[in-house]
Design brief:
The complex is a heterodimer of chains A (about 110) and B (about 120). Chain A is globular. The model of chain A has no long low-confidence stretch (mean pLDDT about 95). In chain A, strands 2, 4, 5, 6, 9, 10 and 11 form a seven-stranded mixed beta sheet that branches. Chain A contains no helices and eleven strands. Chain A has strands at about 5, 10-15, 20-25, 30-35, 45-50, 55, 65, 75-80, 85-95, 100-105, 105-110. With about 120 residues, chain B is mainly β. Chain B has no helices and eleven strands. Chain B has strands at about 5, 10-15, 20-25, 30-35, 45-50, 55-60, 60-65, 70-75, 85-90, 105, 110-115. In chain B, strands 2, 4, 5, 9, 10 and 11 form a six-stranded mixed beta sheet that branches. A five-stranded antiparallel beta sheet of chain B has the order 1-3-8-7-6, with no helix packed on it. The termini of chain B are far apart. The relative contact order of chain B is 0.34. The model of chain B has no long low-confidence stretch (mean pLDDT about 90). The chains are: A mainly beta (about 110), B mainly beta (about 120). At the A-B interface, strand 5 and strand 9 of A face strand 5 and strand 10 of B.
């Protein structure tokens, strides 16, 4: 039981490049979330999903897209990376809306 | 709007108690949480409190909630070096099946435990 895993752990992109971050959970959780963490700030919600095939916008969705084609995976895409997207990205999942959110170890992304 | 604030840093001696404070602005918060983040790791839920409670105790952890002042605190008794980490408070308004549980986090308090 690996919990929540994120791929890759680190990535450096040039401005304008695209990439996809993968979040996978093996706990059969319905809900999945993508957050970004910037220095001195708390985590901010980018997008979330309340079940397979669903996605919704969070607090800071601009510049990102997501997909949840399979229940266990939640993908975060950057179509045209910008330096402002340099951050640490965390994925989380939960069994239900009132249950604990389990966090992955994070992906550190640098956009130059 | 929602806003959660915490002090940036706390230094404490091993064996002493630590108190980490948090203020929030949204009076309709349903749940309030404390998370711990160790270096290079994701967040780990430590404890949470329902908004209709004043206090919750869980082993070395005591959470106090003052709804009138919108103030939340986390007390760690007998602080150990393994408690050195960043602690985040977070609030959620009304979790729902349709909208999940959107958390609003404070900026985190870095706790350094000195031997």
């Amino acid at each position: 039981n690996a919990g929540v895993t994120q791929t890759p752990k680190f990535r450096v992109l040039k401005t304008g490049q695209s990439m996809t971050l993968l979040c996978a959970q093996d706990m059969n959780h319905e809900y999945m979330y993508w957050y970004r963490q910037d220095p001195g700030m708390g985590l901010r919600l980018i997008h979330y999903s309340v079940g397979e095939g669903t996605t919704a916008k969070g607090e800071v969705p601009d510049g990102y897209n997501v997909s949840r084609l399979k229940k266990q995976n939640f993908l975060l895409g950057l179509e045209s990376a910008a330096p402002s997207q340099t951050s640490v990205y965390f994925c989380a999942s939960s069994k239900g809306e009132e249950y604990e959110q389990y966090f992955g170890p994070g992906t550190r992304l640098t956009v130059t | 709007g929602e806003d959660v604030e915490q002090s940036l840093f706390l230094s404490v001696r091993e064996g002493d108690s630590s108190v980490i404070n948090c203020t929030y602005t949204d009076s309709s918060s349903t749940y309030l949480y404390w998370y711990k983040q160790e270096p290079g790791a994701g967040l780990q839920l430590l404890t949470y409190i329902f908004s209709n409670m004043d206090m919750k105790q869980d082993q070395r952890l005591t959470v106090l909630l003052n709804k009138k002042d919108k103030h939340l605190s986390l007390r760690i008794a007998d602080t150990q070096t393994g408690d050195s980490a960043i602690y985040f408070c977070a609030e959620s308004i009304t979790p729902s099946k349709a909208a999940g549980n959107k958390l609003t986090f404070g900026g985190g308090t870095r706790v350094l435990v000195k031997p």
